[in-house]
């Protein structure tokens, strides 16, 4: 696919992502063998990752969705996390795996973990495709990580800026003039 004109640089190609998703799936296949977890996808950014990931999983599982917001159309976290849509399934006594696109400040995942733990799951683990390690404001243990990336605002493969660019098959860095333009 040709580079989108708003993208400055491709950080991770379609092939690099595909290989990494395969690696993560292999770890999950090992760790969740003979278990039947609930995979909680955090809307909307993680859906592309989720769809590719679950097609490589060899254990039974169900998927459910939760939606939180902390960015509200900006490129920096507001620091306030809000629950926009809750799970449909009960997670009491279940193995739960949160699938998220990216961990940045850590506030979103810390909030989600706190919230889900109050519902008494049997286990709770976190899987993220991207980790902006240097941006952490709150410690959060991430059990499965795809790539550690620099502190640059990325889009593509589910990640958005103002709801756009989720369809790009690669992960790219937005041109700074795009923020100024919109
Ligand atoms: P945190 O609460 O700061 O860790 O941010 C997590 C959420 O912020 C993710 O679910 C993303 O929706 C969003 N986010 C963080 N960094 C980026 C980025 O570089 N591009 C797009 N969304 C991002």
Could you tell me the number of beta strands?
9
What is the name of the CATH class? Alpha Beta
Distinct ligands, ions and cofactors found in the model: inosinic acid
- Helices, by number, come to 4
**Total individual domains:** 1
Radius of gyration over C-alpha positions, nearest whole angstrom = 16 Å
> Could you say which structural class the secondary elements and strand pairing correspond to?
alpha/beta
- What CATH calls the topology is Rossmann fold
The low-confidence parts are none
Task: Report the portion of residues in β strands.
Answer: 25-35%
Q: Categorize the overall geometry.
A: globular
Mean pLDDT: 94
Q: Architecture, according to CATH?
A: 3-Layer(aba) Sandwich
What is the topology, as strand order, of the major beta sheet?
4-3-2-5-6-7
Helix fraction by DSSP (H/I, runs of at least 4): 10-25%
Largest sheet: 6 strands, mixed
Q: Order of helices and strands, N to C?
A: EHEHEEEHEEEEH
- Kindly, what is the distance between the CA atoms of the first and last residues, rounded to a whole number of angstroms? 24 Å
């Amino acid at each position: 696919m040709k580079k989108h004109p708003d993208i400055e640089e491709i950080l991770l190609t379609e092939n690099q992502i595909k290989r990494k998703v395969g690696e993560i799936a292999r770890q999950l296949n090992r760790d969740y063998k003979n278990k039947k977890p609930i995979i909680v996808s955090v809307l909307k950014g993680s859906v592309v990752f989720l769809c590719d990931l679950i097609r490589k999983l060899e254990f039974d599982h169900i998927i459910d969705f939760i939606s939180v917001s902390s960015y509200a159309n900006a490129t920096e976290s507001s620091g306030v996390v809000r629950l926009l849509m809750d799970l449909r399934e009960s997670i009491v006594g279940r193995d739960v795996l949160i699938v998220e696109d990216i961990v940045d400040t850590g506030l979103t995942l810390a909030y989600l973990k706190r919230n889900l733990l109050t519902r008494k799951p049997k286990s709770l683990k976190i899987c993220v495709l991207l980790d902006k390690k240097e941006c952490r404001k709150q410690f959060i243990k991430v059990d499965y990580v795809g790539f550690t990336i620099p502190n640059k605002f990325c889009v593509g493969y589910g990640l958005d800026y103002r709801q756009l660019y989720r369809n790009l098959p690669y992960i790219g860095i937005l041109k700074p003039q795009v923020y100024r333009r919109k």
